[in-house]
Amino acid sequence: MSAAPAALPTRRALLRTAFTAAVAAGTAAALAPVLRARRPRQTLTPAPLAEETYRGRHIAVDRAGIRIDGRPLHVMRRADGSYLSGVNHFESFGTPLEVARAAVDELGTAQLAAAAPHHG
């Protein structure tokens, strides 16, 4: 006995399969951001690259930025690789730690604003 030849799928069956796959892919793409947002995020504080007490003020430099007594110091990097801050923007400094020390010198006993300025 010989086996019967397999029947070829019809055009309707191929289109139904393609449509079902497209709907499944579209649903997965639409739900992916929602499912990703539900995952808990790690809120680890990055380890400081430099940390010191200068003139009684605590300076911390990490990947997130520079903080003086826990408050952010707005710092900008210049094209030549030096840094300047919003506190002392007339002079450039070679490292983030140097710009933080200069800001402490300029601030004296005053505190930085609680929130960093936002340019929009």
Describe the structure.
- The protein is of the alpha+beta class and 120 residues long.
- Helix content is 33%, strand content 20%.
- It is built from 2 helices and 6 strands, in the order H-E-E-E-E-E-E-H.
- A 4-stranded antiparallel beta sheet has the order 1-2-3-4, with helices on one face.
Instruction: Tell the overall outline.
Output: rod-shaped
Largest sheet, in brief, is:
4 strands, antiparallel
* Chain oligomer state: single chain
Number of strands: 6
Q: Helicity range of the residues?
A: 25-40%
Overall pLDDT score: 84
Q: H/E element string?
A: HEEEEEEH
Q: What does the radius of gyration come to?
A: 29 Å
The end-to-end distance, rounded to whole angstroms, is 80 Å
Indicate the low-confidence ranges by residue numbers.
none
The total of helices stands at 2
Structural class: alpha+beta
**Widest sheet: strand ordering:** 1-2-3-4
Strand content: 15-25%
